[in-house]
Amino acid sequence: MSGTNHNGNDFQCLTCNFIGVAQDMMKHLSTTRHRKIEYIPLKEVLKCDECENDNIHLLNIIVSSSEVALLCNNCKSNEFTIDELNDKLQTKIYSLSNGNLLKNWYLYLKYQNSCCSVCGEDNKLLYINSDNGKIFCSECCKDKTSSKYISEEDPAFIYKLLGLVDPSFKKTQMKKGTNKKRMKGRKRGKFKSKNVSVDGIDTQKKLSLMQRLDQERKKTKNTNRLIETESTLSLRTFKGTKAKKENLTTPTLGKGMMPDKKSGLENPKKGGANHIFPKERTNGKKNMGSGSNSFPRRTNPLPNNGANVKGPSLSTNKNLKNNKKSSKFDSNSNVKVASFDNKFSHPNKKDGYSSSFSIKNKDLVHSNNKNIKKTNDNSNYSNNNNNNNNNNNNNNNNNNNNNNNNKNNKNNKVIRYPNSIANNKHVSDIDKQEQKACNLNHNKYLEEGEHSQNYTKVFKAVMNYKNLESYLNYISYALFLEAKLETGFLENFDILWPKNPIEEPSFVLVFKSRNNKELDQIWPEHYKKMKRLPFSKQQPIMLTAVDISNKNDYESDKNKIWYAFVKDIKDEKGQLKILLECFTWCMEPLPVSRGHNAFKILPCVPQFARILFAMSRIKNPHFIKLLLGNESFRKIRFENKLTYTQQNLNDSQKDAVQFALNNQVTVLQGPPGTGKTSTIVEIILQLITAMKQVPILVVAASNIAIDNIVEKLMNLDKKINILRIVSMSKESDYDMDHPIGKVCLHNIVKNKMSPDLYRIWKMFVDHNINGEFMQHRKKMFDEREKIIDWYVGRAQVILTTNVAAGGKELQVFKDIPYVIMDESTQSSEASTLIPLSLPGIKRFIFVGDDKQLSTFSNVPQLEVSLFERILNNGTYANPPMLNVQFRMHPKISEFSIEKIYDHALSDGVTEKDRQYLGIKYPLFFYNLFKAPEEDYINPVHSSGASNISRRNVREANEVVNVVLKLMKDKNVPKSKIGVITPYSAQRDLIAALLQKNREVNPTQKNIIQELDKEDALASSNVSSASSLGSSTMNFIDRIVVATVDAFQGHEKEFIIFSTVRSNPSGKIGFLSDKRRLNVALTRAKNGLIILGNKQTLSRSKGLWHDYMEYISKKNLIFASLKEY
């Protein structure tokens, strides 16, 4: 049988559609390096039998005594020993490199289709020499006793079957279990003939629909979960040299590292370093990725989230230290409350800033952390803690805080506020001591919302890139800067360098797997019980030189960092070996001449791992063009004949829908209140009905933006198949009682799983790993996977956050035609890459507003959203814009329309539409002249850095008065009131005051905290709920209190805006950002009440100065609430 022209034009290149016989195709592949071909008669892509790798350059046909298999180089090394592969007499290897792969393709096909010539059975076969080489099974063989047959168990069977020379095997050489291996080899092949008929019998076993779907699903998932690489190395085949210990004259400590005497860091001659890792965060939530392969995230110990940050208390008078008579304990709220006098005097007397004013709320409350329930559930929680225990705990905390404070004051003269109200001190006593904080060295602390000079002094915004490799390397470096603030380095390991770092950019790390304190920090007990290793395949790891500078300068650092991923991992004989392969965009070859102690590694947390994985899969040329920013986009404007499903769409919304259907990349500007959600819903409906495009993926950085779209889709007359995927940490907030609970994937899975297996799943979630779990875990995971794949696969619209889009759930898709990203400016460019890299995307629709805030990151490179960069680099000029706002009262929107949107925006509602009964002034500025601001020190970062937040006590009390006036005088329901402020300290203070006030909160319900945004960077760069970027929103009996940044994307009928800043110099810090002001001014529908100091805001530069002039001319500045 000829191998070269066995079936005519058998093969087709799937890259360029070239068709040819074996010899021609091999020449074509050798010259073009195209990687994917199809066997035309069976319409099957050539791919590895084991891992389904379809890179033809890596495939081999292996003919041995045990099987004939099509394997990639990696699987070949795993399936066969080196001795077996090197035995050329007994093992035949046909590959593209030796010119024999396609020539001998017929051998593989013949073996795959070998079966009984009578019944078609493919087990227990016999080769009959005397019957023209026919094959029978043991049941159909006519002469079982004949000496002329060769059993399938005989090593010569394959060679006789394929007509190859028998290498004269001895049966004694046959390995035990070879028959099973051979049977496995034939069954795993994908190239059985479709219509092989022997004596009228169809030998092809028919699969059911579910079996075929399941088979297809597995193929797709295997393809989508792997980082593509041409390397076939494994730990078994890697050959390298061990790096020697280098004599480092000046060992360098990494960020957050501590010297250790045992490691020799204090003595440079000893070399090496033993990084002291912080304890794992214990905030009551488990840091888990979605799926069983996630790995834990390590951070420094943090203060408990509460209305106030736990820290050393103020030094107190000994008589007041434990004075129970000076305080009262509220049993309902679990808050220790101090009684204060009615006067509060501030010593600063310049420019009339000395103040003496009445505090109508005598109890200024700092909420204990136990008073705040950190959750995402809007239900109210009753306090079940024992009051006596809490009293004791409070006293103990006070004692500890006093001791800590003494040390703190000696060193830094910085005062931090305690959990409970200043250890029951009189407010005037507090104020005298708090003035020390005003004189602190601001250079040692970060201003809230501002970046460290370590990151800003060398930062230059990059608008475009030369090529994809330079772009990916730059983003990787920015992720490195962020990751080193979040995760500790590992330094105790050996390195095996490759012999040829150019051709094989891989290396091996070797750790001691026993009694290794470093590994124990990232290897929790439940992992060990599950027999899971601390690292997983595909996990990115960053290798960096220990002498890397602390300047955070890309140009000087880019050649000292290597970004790699785990290719293979094995734990044996007390050693954990990890084979790492560098990503293709690494700038420098591996430094094979250097010693192992010259390097440290940085494991990536799951969010960053998803970003780096996404970066390795960016292939769409239109998206690459978008990322590089060198070419302008040609926009197609065509009027499709559409029947709009929503009758109230305006012209700008209809134009946006048409534009999105016609262009591969759409950038749609949507100012506040312009109906972005309605427009997105209309685009979805048109894609389903008119374009017949499914599935459609909708993503955003925040859950509220996604939930708004889900609710609108659920309320449509036309029923479509919607699926909401939430991260594992949020699943408890979306139970079946939630408005969108019935379309949430985790609820569907729970209902479909058997109760017993769901109980096993809960063991996994709760880290309750025992014998029962280990016995049933495989069955449980298999059942969950099948249910998830089925419901995800049949969904028409899938809605999730950016980071969750990188989970396992979406790996079931070959193609996702359309992706829509809402609130695009709030999504960091790095996290945007996750949905942008999903398979088979044809069109991507960005919806956002560059006049509003972007995400916050400690690294400036990661703050600019892709949406903003596209507009700033000029590659997407004049994007379509929604130009009619339907949210705000015209008197509230007027300034933003004029000064921020340059009259491109208009009102779609009238003053009559937004008039609220009893409200005379929709826009009201309450001038609080004698209300000094105060510094507030927050420990916010795992690196140990602190930031200066600010608060204004009088303003906070007046906010409570405004709330009471709206409730009592204007009959405004609590659910229609929102309080926003730039500073987290003010947010927490206001929340505590509202919680304590019995008119606002008569049943003394606890403060409920919600964390909304799930952007990879916004969630990773913050370690305290009291920081700006945490997106924490406090709920006090339906009244929401949040920072301006956290409230972006939300709206309320009435917004109370506490500006906080009050000083004679006109300094307003990050409040000067015009985007932050725009967000603050555009949240209210019916009424906006601003509390602030007219002089301070007027003396500032920029947009605030203009705004104060605007409201002054309108006579909207008032000195009393009586006029409201």
The CATH architecture term of one domain is: 3-Layer(aba) Sandwich
Strand order of the largest sheet: 18-38-39-40-37-41-42-34-43
Radius of gyration: 34 Å
How many beta-strand segments? 43
CATH topological fold name of one domain: Rossmann fold
> Please, what is the CATH homologous superfamily of one domain?
P-loop containing nucleotide triphosphate hydrolases
Class inferred from helices and paired strands:
alpha/beta
CATH class of one domain, anyone?
Alpha Beta
- Helical content stands at 25-40%
Summarize the biggest pleated sheet: 9 strands, mixed
List the total number of helices.
Answer: 32
Distance between the termini: 97 Å
Task: Detail the poorly predicted runs.
Answer: 1-7, 169-188, 193-204, 250-443, 940-944, 1018-1029
What is the percentage of strand-forming residues?
15-25%
Shape: elongated
What's the overall average pLDDT, rounded? 77
Short description:
The chain is of the alpha/beta class and 1124 residues long. The chain has 32 helices and 43 strands. 29% of the residues lie in helices and 17% in strands.
What would your notes on this structure say?
This protein is 29% helix and 17% strand. Among the domains are: 19-162, no CATH class; 479-549 and 557-608, Elongation Factor Tu (Ef-tu), domain 3 (Beta Barrel), CATH 2.40.30; 621-751 and 795-883, 3-Layer(aba) Sandwich (Rossmann fold), CATH 3.40.50.300; 890-1118, P-loop containing nucleotide triphosphate hydrolases (Rossmann fold, 3-Layer(aba) Sandwich). The chain is an alpha/beta fold and 1124 residues long. The longest helix has 25 residues, at 387-411.
